[in-house]
Amino acid sequence: MKPLVSQDFGKVAVLMGGWSAEREISLKSGAAVLNALLSQGVDAVGIDVQKNLFPQLAAEPFQRVFNILHGRGGEDGVVQGALECLGLAYTGSGVQASAITMDKIKTKLIWRGLGLSTPTFLRVEPDMYLEHIVSQVGLPLIIKPALEGSSIGMSRVEHVNELPAALEVAMRCSGSVLAERWISGSEYTVSMLQDRVLPSIRLETPHTFYDFDAKYNATDTRYHCPSGLSDSDEQALRTLVKQAFDAVGATGWGRVDVMRDTDGEFWLIEVNTVPGMTDHSLVPMAARAAGIEFNELVLRILETSFSDRP
Fold it and tell me: pTM higher than 0.85 for the full model?
């Protein structure tokens, strides 16, 4: 198969914005992607997605979609289903994988069922006794909304009396909430691109964890790529990430977040099927370490829209 050129993509809609809690990040990612496509001669148009997406897409003769919508509505299978109804090819994972990976609980259930290492967790039910949560998960733990990204609504809990406030923050996001065992150690993230595992990145932040501010605003977050792992540990991590990505049916591109405890064991945390593409983002950083600059990366992601879907 000969390499694709700009004209092969046809007219491309770059979907950004949306209505999730990650809207502003998506707009930044979308602007970067759109500029990269235009600079390479791709006939691309940016669309700030509203809930009337069908007429927005019908306004011009689009052949395919670069989906850079983060969070609910864009990363959970909703937009993917709409695009399939319209017969429009799109980047990244399909409906089922998007829906699974947006839900941290469903993702972890699949991993656990396949024997892949993920921290002990518990779906927090209404009126569940706080002592029961602690007895099942242990302390410290982290409370998370199951359906949010970018660390929105997450809180570390060291004492049982901190649980009510943490649960209140998470429940403001709506949807299920989970309590997860806190893993003390180093945080890594590994990106996938067209079935290729990119070099791992080790994250270092003075914050309690790699939260929203550390991701997008802080100037003291450090990114280590190469991550400092030995060759054998790097290979073990890449193998685990590939297994985790495939297990949930994710395709095209994405990112898997992992913790490594003080005993050296890796623990799967979550999958992002539409990761950020801002100046703070991790996929471009990993791609650069693999010799792929941003403009090429954007085209490689757009190529995933040619993938066959079930």
Answer: yes
